[in-house]
Amino acid sequence: MPKLTFYNLPKEKQQLLIEAAQQEFSNASLSEVSIANIVKTAGISRGSFYQYFEGKEDLYFYLLNRYTARRKRLFKATLEKNSGDLFQTIREFYISTVNEDELLDFKRNVLLNMTEQVETKFIKIVNEEESEEEFNTISRLMDVDKLNVSGNKELYHLLKILMTVTIRNWIEHFARNLAVEESIANYELELELLKKGLARS
Amino acid sequence: MPKLTFYNLPKEKQQLLIEAAQQEFSNASLSEVSIANIVKTAGISRGSFYQYFEGKEDLYFYLLNRYTARRKRLFKATLEKNSGDLFQTIREFYISTVNEDELLDFKRNVLLNMTEQVETKFIKIVNEEESEEEFNTISRLMDVDKLNVSGNKELYHLLKILMTVTIRNWIEHFARNLAVEESIANYELELELLKKGLARS
DNA sequence: GTGGACATGTGACACAGTGTCATGTTAAGC
DNA sequence: GCTTAACATGACACTGTGTCACATGTCCAC
């Protein structure tokens, strides 16, 4: 988390820094990005940077949190719009995800260099395990009757599977430079497989 | 890939370097590892290192390849032993995976810092997309009748889903420091969900 | 055995990036 | 205007990288 000094900054200066950072993180992965470049682009001194953030990881996860928080709101709204239909929701969510062209290079870099720490952040979009409350909020929004699960534990694992497959498709979208339509078609195929089951009965 | 000079080295010296490298990569992630440390442990000079490898990534992927090649052989053997039963095979494969305690810290570091480039290597254990031949060899070994798919395309996506979920469980095993039994129980639960389908019919 | 030619080994070096800290600047309260 | 605390700055010591001119080893022709 950024330090207090960062939040004390005038909004415009915060925004400037955020934009500079997003630009740098669009051109390189976390380990390749240099603080030297960020401060140069943002027009602040090296020392100031360390007044605001612990280091570049701190800034990186701050940006990531901003992004996932927005996505999470969209997910909840979509779920409500679809009266709790999880599969319809996650399908629409994926389509809007691959169509969104804001911060494209930033997302590419994040996804192609995603580690467990980062992936956990994304999975928490639907599955805020750490807070029982959040999990309950979302599972109350969902129409559980349509899902082939009994109990919260199975529900939790179902969500984990869905998010894992979703993220992996999103990563592949970038890794293999898939066209939006192809990426969606692949994802829908996998969703159908997941819904109907992988084993022949 | 290592340079020719590395393969020209006497086997014992190769082994020494490999062991030194595995030790370093057990203590730190790819981006944190220092060549200085590797050469110190291996007792060679910095210059020599660059005669053998392009850089530390080169060495890292060399080690990774050695490991995944062994795993791949095991997977094929298990599949044959189980007369092509994919679910039984992957279940046994996962159990042997989390029970194997060789190179434990190395695997932890690899998994917790897995990027798309690394994950692709692992997924290719069953799904060597680049070589049509490999894919056919493996799909011939499998008893496809037990799987709820029609055609190679669906089969490909089924395998992708299975590997994705398997790897994610393996990562979580390390990330959350799960006991072997708990990890296996979680995985089996997810396998059953996958087999029977996520949607209620 | 000597010379030469080629392969391999070596560590000093220039360079790039990090995090810190002593010192300078600003602004608000009184 | 003075005080004080918060913020800004860039030089600095440190750590690590990849390279290169030179040293050493190896092998074969003569």
Automatic annotation (TrEMBL), chains A, B:
<feature type="DNA-binding region" description="H-T-H motif">
    <location>
        <begin position="34"/>
        <end position="53"/>
    </location>
</feature>
<feature type="domain" description="HTH tetR-type">
    <location>
        <begin position="11"/>
        <end position="71"/>
    </location>
</feature>
<dbReference type="Pfam" id="PF00440">
    <property type="entry name" value="TetR_N"/>
</dbReference>
<keyword id="KW-0238">DNA-binding</keyword>
<dbReference type="InterPro" id="IPR001647">
    <property type="entry name" value="HTH_TetR"/>
</dbReference>
<dbReference type="InterPro" id="IPR009057">
    <property type="entry name" value="Homeodomain-like_sf"/>
</dbReference>
<dbReference type="InterPro" id="IPR050624">
    <property type="entry name" value="HTH-type_Tx_Regulator"/>
</dbReference>
<protein>
    <submittedName>
        <fullName>TetR family transcriptional regulator</fullName>
    </submittedName>
</protein>
<dbReference type="Pfam" id="PF17924">
    <property type="entry name" value="TetR_C_19"/>
</dbReference>
<dbReference type="InterPro" id="IPR023772">
    <property type="entry name" value="DNA-bd_HTH_TetR-type_CS"/>
</dbReference>
